[in-house]
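Weekly sync, protein design subgroup
Attendees: M.S., D.O., the rotation student, P.L. (late)

Item 1: inverse folding check
M.S. brought a backbone from last month's batch and wanted to see whether the design step gives back something sensible before we order anything. D.O. pointed out we never logged the input encoding, so this time it goes straight into the notes. Structure tokens as presented (249 positions):
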């Protein structure tokens, strides 16, 4: 039996019950910039019994003013994100906002990647970019060292935020980057060297879509050669990521 957490007044004036399960769903969605119902279904498999139940709960949470929903350009599925009301109600860190219309395909693909990492390394603590920004952006203009972002050296204040961070039980910190669009190799190498030079990042894993794999591998070879010269060993790893595995595209 579900535990009712609180009554929530919806705009129409009728109270709706917010359950413990609803809060778990909202808190998970709040870790991301926007999610699809399919991703919620996958994350809560065994808890929410079917995709139909997921859609019904997401619609209810939208009616309660806790989620916003929209159709993003080029995507058939709706995307859901938490509202400012939900973030204040559940004390979710960060600022409320709509999905980035430029980055949303990448952001949704990162969720698929995170769920894959969660399957292959279930003991890792995953930290999302949104969570990293909530931790590190407030101290960006102070002398405080970043938690998981890395310094770009620009005006001594620039930061680069990983797509994901995985903290293993032994304390090893892995930054994860998903490469789904082609970047010039020198730019890739510069980005990789930021992780090489970051003492608080143990390794960086670059997940590349198949058509980009060779370019990313060559960049990693160059970055690792520099890392070895610095006495830091090989800190950059590369893996292929297939969009077809998750239906991201």
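Designed sequence read out in the meeting:
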């Amino acid at each position: 039996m579900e535990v009712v957490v609180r009554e929530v007044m919806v705009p129409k004036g009728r109270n709706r019950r917010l359950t413990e399960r609803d809060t778990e769903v909202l808190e998970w969605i709040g870790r991301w910039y926007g999610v699809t119902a399919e991703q919620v279904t996958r994350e809560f498999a065994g808890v929410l019994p079917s995709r139909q139940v997921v859609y019904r709960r997401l619609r209810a949470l939208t009616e309660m003013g806790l989620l916003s929903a929209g159709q993003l350009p080029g995507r058939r599925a709706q995307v859901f994100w938490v509202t400012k009301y939900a973030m204040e109600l559940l004390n979710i860190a960060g600022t409320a906002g709509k999905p980035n219309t430029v980055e949303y395909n990448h952001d949704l693909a990162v969720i698929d990647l995170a769920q894959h990492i969660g399957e292959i390394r279930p003991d890792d603590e995953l930290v999302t970019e949104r969570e990293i920004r909530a931790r590190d952006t407030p101290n960006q203009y102070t002398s405080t060292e970043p938690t998981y972002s890395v310094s770009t050296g620009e005006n001594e204040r620039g930061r680069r935020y990983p797509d994901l961070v995985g903290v293993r039980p032994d304390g090893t910190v892995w930054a994860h980057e998903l490469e789904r669009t082609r970047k010039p190799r020198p730019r890739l190498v510069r980005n990789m060297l930021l992780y090489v030079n970051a003492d608080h990042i143990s390794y960086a894993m670059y997940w590349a879509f198949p058509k980009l794999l060779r370019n990313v591998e060559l960049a990693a070879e160059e970055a690792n050669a520099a890392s070895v010269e610095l006495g830091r060993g090989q800190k950059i790893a590369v893996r292929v990521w297939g969009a077809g595995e998750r239906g991201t595209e």
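Discussion: The chain has two domains: 4-99, 105-245. Residues 4-99 form a domain with the Arc Repressor Mutant, subunit A fold (CATH 1.10.10.10).
Action: P.L. to compare against the previous round before Friday.
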